[in-house]
Amino acid sequence: MASAPAPAPSPVESATIRKLQTHILPFVFLLYVIAYLDRTNIGFAALTMNKELAITSPQFGFLAGIFFFGYFIFEVPSNLLLHRIGARIWIARILLSWGIVAMLTGFIHTAHQLYTLRFLLGLAEAGYFPGIVLYLTYWFREREQAQAIALFMAATPFTSIIGAPVSGLILDHAHWLGLSSWRWLLILEGFPAIVCGLLTYLLLPNRPGEAKFLTPEEKEWISSELAREERHKAAEHRISAVQVFKNARVWHLTAIGFLASCASYSMVFWMPQFMKALSRQYSNTTVGTLVMVPYLIGLTAMVLIGHRSDRVLERRYHAAVPAIIGAIFLALVATTTPNSALFSVILWSFAATGIYGLMGPFWSLPSEFLTGFSAAAGIALINCFGNLGGFVGPYAIGAINKRTGSFRGGLAFLGVSLFTSAMLILALRKKPEKQA
């Protein structure tokens, strides 16, 4: 049963939340667009890169997913360092290092060199996503977090909405200085991370007390509200950063994140090749346009579901129901036949609705019982192990595709993964038990 809706806000509350939404969210949204583009543009580069470098389907699945091993190794330490050092310096460091590695990827000559740089890209970017989720808890109360996280994570489908057609155009038209177009794709899309790293260091405030866009009254109000929530969670649960690693609810959320990541990253890395397989006559620009549509639908669902989850203060069903919808339509995508692009786009659109719709409510669950260093460790741990699904899913698709010569078995595997994720969400207790 859902909790009662929040009472009507006071004028200072309304003004403060509006300023946070218009000053903090757009900036971290932009940063995540750049991060997600550099993480996933290998899916479009593969349309021409795989042939040039003689990369097989299993090899592509491995190089797409090896990013997450690097991410895994440094995830928790990175988030703890962010909490100690401050978001401005640490996020700027992350952006600069991954921008450099992303651009260098455009100069590789063998699959093994690509394995190495994809691993280093994950190492460089480690901690960025959980760091931003943690950073949002410094600014938004629990009642606004699902929508704030959904608006931030809307960068994932938005990146593909703009990145898919742009990547297709680069592949079709960028053949400068004797370099292949897929190389220019990786180089051009890596450069913005370096620019935004410098902007982050100059512009991003660490906490509300440093925010120049808030009045003293607004700083006092949001700081006191967040401090009150922290005291309440500390009194109720008392989970230290060390205890996070043996907390059953944290590992339950980690399993959910792992299975959901299997589906979401497989969609991102493999959908361009799936669309291309429908008709070899499609140009890369056409493929980019087709791929854009499901992400546009998923973006809309993500924002609307996150907003409703906050309005009724309910998380479990708002995450589980979209996951079930996504699972059903991923399985249906497997029935798509060649030359049925419209039907395929419709099915992928419903799948994207489910995959992205669950994100805001799901990532609001850790902040119900974690705060401070325990939040830093817990969010990183959930994302750290959960993101290994970003290796397992794409690699499984490549292996199944090579064995069967079809995407159907792999898509069915993703549907089962997402459905299992939904069942685990429903199995969560409504509220974590009070800790001793």
Q: Please, could you describe this protein's structure?
A:
The chain has a single domain, classed as MFS general substrate transporter like domains (Growth Hormone, Chain: A), CATH 1.20.1250. 78% of the residues lie in helices and 0% in strands. The protein is globular and about 60 Å long. Helix 4 (67-85) packs parallel to helix 6 and helix 9 (155-173) runs antiparallel to helix 10. By secondary structure, it is mainly alpha-helical. It has 19 helices and no strands.
**Named CATH topology:** Growth Hormone, Chain: A
Cα shape: globular
CATH superfamily name? MFS general substrate transporter like domains
Overall average pLDDT: 86
Query: In percent terms, what proportion of residues is strand?
Result: under 5%
Number-wise, the strands total 0
**Percent of residues in helical segments?**
over 70%
Q: Low-confidence runs (pLDDT<50, min 5 residues)?
A: none
Text of the CATH class: Mainly Alpha
